[in-house]
Amino acid sequence: MTKKEVEIRLENGLEARPVALLVQTASQFDSAIYIESGNAKVNAKSIMGMMTLVLHAGEKVTITADGKDEEEAALAIGNYLSDK
User: Fold this and answer.
1) Cα dist. 22→35, 43 in Å?
2) What span, in angstroms and rounded, lies between the C-alpha atoms of 82 and 84?
3) Helix ranges (DSSP H) in the chain
4) pLDDT tens per residue, range 10-24
5) How far apart are the C-alpha atoms of 11 and 7, rounded to whole Å?
6) How far apart are CA 27 and CA 20, in angstroms?
7) What pTM does this model have?
């Protein structure tokens, strides 16, 4: 299991389009990927789940990935959220 904490640096946070792109990115990996914010933990491959988090620029989240490509998955999601 890989965990990575990142700050969201997308200009408008995670609105509908950025969430869709995040889910597309997460879905490219076989690993289970979750985004944690506060007490909420959501499957990063679920558009509806991700929309419930209502994440804004500047917020910190924890990415958890578990599976054969977990390190690559956590890195890709982290880079996306960090706007790299």
Assistant:
1) 11, 11
2) 6
3) 16-26, 47-53, 70-81
4) 988 889 999 999 999
5) 12
6) 10
7) 0.93
Amino acid at 14: L
Distance, CA of 31 to CA of 40 (rounded, Å): 19
Q: How far apart are CA 27 and CA 34, in angstroms?
A: 12
| Count of other CB atoms within 10 angstroms of residue 39 | 5
Residue linked to tokens 């200009």: 11
The structure tokens listed for 38 are 């506060």
Task: Look up residue 54 and give its amino acid.
Answer: V
Q: Reply yes or no on whether the pLDDT at 84 is more than 80.
A: no
DSSP state of 31: S
SS3 state of residue 3: strand
Q: At what angle do helices 70-81 and 16-26 cross, to 10 degrees?
A: 160
Tell me the C-alpha distance between 26 and 64, whole Å: 11
